[in-house]
Design a protein that fits this description.
Largest interface: A-B, 60 and 60 residues
Number of helices of chain A: 9
GO molecular function (chains A, B): DNA-binding transcription factor activity; transcription cis-regulatory region binding
Largest sheet of chain A: none
Keywords (chains A, B): DNA-binding, Transcription, Transcription regulation
Shape of chain A: elongated
InterPro entries (chains A, B): DNA-bd_HTH_TetR-type_CS (IPR023772), Homeodomain-like_sf (IPR009057), HTH-type_TetR-like_transc_reg (IPR050109), HTH_TetR (IPR001647), Tet_transcr_reg_TetR-rel_C_sf (IPR036271), TetR_C (IPR011075)
Domain HTH tetR-type (chains A, B): 18-78
Oligomer: homodimer
CATH class of the largest domain in chain A: Mainly Alpha
Order of helices and strands of chain A: HHHHHHHHH
DNA-binding region (chains A, B): 41-60
Amino acid sequence: MEQPSRIAGTVRPGGRTARVRAAVLEATQDELVEHGFHGLTMDQVAARAGVGKTTVYRRWGSTPGLVADLMTELANQSSPHADTGGIESDLRVNALAVVEALNDGRLGATFQAVIAAATCDEQASLALRTFYLRRIEEWTSVVDLAVARGELPVGTDGGEVIRAIAAPLYYRLMITREPVTAEAAEWSVARTLAAARAGAFVTGALVTGGAPG
Amino acid sequence: MEQPSRIAGTVRPGGRTARVRAAVLEATQDELVEHGFHGLTMDQVAARAGVGKTTVYRRWGSTPGLVADLMTELANQSSPHADTGGIESDLRVNALAVVEALNDGRLGATFQAVIAAATCDEQASLALRTFYLRRIEEWTSVVDLAVARGELPVGTDGGEVIRAIAAPLYYRLMITREPVTAEAAEWSVARTLAAARAGAFVTGALVTGGAPG
């Protein structure tokens, strides 16, 4: 959510090692966007980055290793959570940032490629989970602050609220393949907040009904 | 949601054409589960189904053609919506059916393979969208019946309620790669219903707040 679309130039300046990493991750993202995870090869990444193959193999090991490091870098560059003073506007910033990222030609394609890779590669799956759990944790505090301000019930599970904001947007992107619009973001905020205000995100509040039927 | 895991034997009996189709779709699903969409080839499907390559090429054209027909068949075999007499238990049947399907080794792997395929193939994307929009439409009537019974506000958007039940489950499966549990299904029902009862699914109810920040 809210990452810059390109890596090169935004990685903090450093020595040769940092420059090599920036070039390799940039090339990895380029290749992912153009060819998907199944079209990603170490040799192509090395050639595109202008870096020796040996270096790429030694340092990243495999294409899932490249993807994992790319996701780490994208997480590092992600913006911190909002703090607008109100839960509705904080969640709106979050939801609209998700919409923006998913509609960004480069970043959205990167996420889709990694989500696809995760279905068949354990290392890509772990990189994806790590990325999203970090982002969820980062944003959980906006819910905790809202609880402290009395905007939401005590015991509201912040991580679940943040997941609930994003879920309908990813569902449209990946499952029903429908457009991910600003309106969908607004609906997600409105529905999640209605449920949260009603206490449906309070830990332990789940009362399971009888058996279906 | 709630499809039988295997196709062979459940396709209605017919002539040779129906038997060939059943064998080919069964082989397509086997190959998808074992090798993913990128490992799917027309020749392997033909060999596995014991059907001539020419027949497979003539009738399905390409691997996305196979995937599209498989999704059509899975949609045809999906069970109709529940009608338990109450919206909470109807939605619970729906949510638990999604959990069951996603955790079914064969069916869950099939969906994940097609979801991954949709990120890089337009025909697979269309097949996926068609499948889910059919399932959403099928289940929308449980919400309409609930509105008619006075359980939910007039104007509640049934399709959006059904999407909201499934979205957190697919989000855990595909994005955060977390387990898709019966408890997650119960939470999804509780939260969606809380929002629906508060009117957050009523068409036109969206009041957009000020600009974020």
